[in-house]
Amino acid sequence: MSSHNTGLTWELIQEARARILGKVHRTPLMTSATLDTQANAKLYFKCENFQKVGAFKARGATNAVFSLSDAEARNGVATHSSGNHAAALARAAKLRGIPAHIVMPNNAPKSKQASVSRYGGKIILCEPTLQARESTVERVIAETGATLIHPYNDLRVMAGQATTAVELLEDVPDLDVILCPVGGGGQLSGIAVAAKTIKPSIRVIGVEPAGADDAARSFRSGQIVQMINPRTIADGLRTSLGEKPFAEIRRYVDDIVTVSEESIIGSMRQIWEVLKIIVEPSGAVPYASLIENKLDVQQQRVGLVLSGGNLDLDSLPWMHPQSMPPPVR
Amino acid sequence: MSSHNTGLTWELIQEARARILGKVHRTPLMTSATLDTQANAKLYFKCENFQKVGAFKARGATNAVFSLSDAEARNGVATHSSGNHAAALARAAKLRGIPAHIVMPNNAPKSKQASVSRYGGKIILCEPTLQARESTVERVIAETGATLIHPYNDLRVMAGQATTAVELLEDVPDLDVILCPVGGGGQLSGIAVAAKTIKPSIRVIGVEPAGADDAARSFRSGQIVQMINPRTIADGLRTSLGEKPFAEIRRYVDDIVTVSEESIIGSMRQIWEVLKIIVEPSGAVPYASLIENKLDVQQQRVGLVLSGGNLDLDSLPWMHPQSMPPPVR
């Protein structure tokens, strides 16, 4: 990375680390002799499901909010999200004592709305289309002077997510490979830059649902492929790649592999049953690649990012294996 | 405790600690700002759901198996159990390289049988009555020369379970109170003896389902009350108290309180949703007492024993709130 780098730098990641210290959890690793034997590898699960707000998104949102100058911060922050970024941004804004304007589609689950409200976020409902979301956020920003914090296409957010890899390599310096879910690419890009800086020989692999394989196709073609009609239970991974994450992913990620819905559900269930922890479908995606034998990790030390643990306990996928979420625009 | 003590002594607990070191996990504590605020107390959840075989039973079974002389061990061990003790004893015997004969009722769930088989235990099925279980174990012992390891009415088992409290007080020396589930009493008695030895001013409270309140009634009357017709989802707590645990419980436990089925289910769900970990109904019983405001723990440091994490993920209690398990003999 040259000093003229306009992308994600190691310096930005180190600043993020210092900035969010004490404001988010340094999450633990979990291991399992049973899963190690099954994979013939030594697996280290990075428990971002135990992170504040139940997902890694707390890192990026906290870094972004605390990166703002007092003048910028005064008018608050805004975003459109129906997922973990919404709660993470609301929480970070509350920590700093500034308003958070969260645009959500009017069909967002009540539980997600409740989570944002609990952290003091101001919810603005809109029609459930990308166009309505974007125009509503623009209007909110025009009216309030709030700063937009994009869920992934933002260097401050990417730098925050990168801190996961810094912790992982502090705890396991001789790690051979990191498996990370990929949706918008904020986490994968951050982890790739951090991990390759700390240990250039490490492999970083993105894993995504076959039903939302825009990142794998973008990676192969060298150009961002938009995800038009994602069909996956992994609701955190339905978005298309952002430009800023994609630039880092092209440079630093070794491969992106895809996994089936069946493997994602099987992975989630095994993690629940064996590790005794709650992981959401998106967070179970990396381990699904080992179930499918998609990667050669034999006898290696493998870090797997369990990205989050938020889901509706009333409707678990193994109860309705035939169901498939509707296409999302 | 005098030197003529025929019950559970601190010396037995210290020996157990040394004996099981490296053979079972030293389990972590979890905390939650959300649950602390709700309870107006500082809560420390002792994660025995992350223990080997998914429950605290690994401690007692391992101590018992490794307490045997080589001559005793040669013919193996035996027990009757359909729960976590069965898997724990099978695993401990496998570690020592001796046979484990596990008598199970022929209606025991396939998942429980599979768990015992996975650890190399030899399953002997019998009719699902207490009489059939006991006579079958007697026959197995007569035929094999195996040593009976009772799930809770055994000082070696109680000493093993006691090590949970030793760890808890090492991690949080200024703990004010420990809340522990009570079924047969092996864990509660062990924890009470250990905790009161280390910190005489600590309070130790047993918590049990109102639908299996034999321990509370025994505690008040001073005599063991048999549990004839337990009705609770907390399958680990349906047994009656053993005599050896009861002797310690009378001496060292401060109180035993009961909780409703609704609170147990609510507790389990909150632990899943907020802590993002899997706890079985029996392990959710202590926290249920805080939901019910049964205890004054305001501003105190409270240890809660999450005793295990084994349950059938296909049938979660909030899916069928009206259902109640049949009476168990």
What does this 3D model show about the protein?
Two copies of one chain form a homodimer. With 329 residues, chain A is of the alpha/beta class. Chain A has two domains: 2-55 and 154-323, Rossmann fold (3-Layer(aba) Sandwich), CATH 3.40.50; 58-148, Rossmann fold. Chain A contains 13 helices and ten strands. The mean pLDDT of chain A is 94. The A-B interface holds A 28, 30, 49-50, 54, 269, 272-273, 275-279, 309, 313-314, 316, 318-319 and B 28, 30, 49-50, 54, 269, 272-273, 275-279, 309, 313-314, 316, 318-319.
The strand order across the widest sheet of chain A is: 1-2-10-7-8-9
The total count of helices of chain A amounts to 13
Low-confidence parts of chain A: none
On the 0 to 100 scale, the average pLDDT of chain A is: 94
Short description:
Two copies of one chain form a homodimer. By secondary structure, the first copy, chain A, is an alpha/beta fold.
Keywords:
alpha/beta; 44% helix; 4-stranded parallel sheet; Rossmann fold; 6-stranded mixed sheet; globular; homodimer; 13 helices; 329 residues; 2 domains
Topology, please?
2 copies of one chain form a homodimer.
Chain A (H helix, E strand, L loop, with lengths): L9 H11 L8 E2 L2 H7 L2 E6 L9 H11 L2 H5 L2 E4 L3 H13 L3 E6 L4 H9 L3 E5 L3 H15 L2 E2 L6 H17 L5 E5 L4 H13 L4 E7 L4 H8 L21 H10 L2 E5 L1 H15 L5 H11 L9 E6 L23
Parallel strand pairs in A: 2-10, 3-4, 3-6, 4-5, 7-8, 7-10, 8-9
Antiparallel strand pairs in A: 1-2
Helix pairs in contact in A: 1-3, 1-8, 3-5, 3-8, 5-6, 8-9, 9-11, 12-13
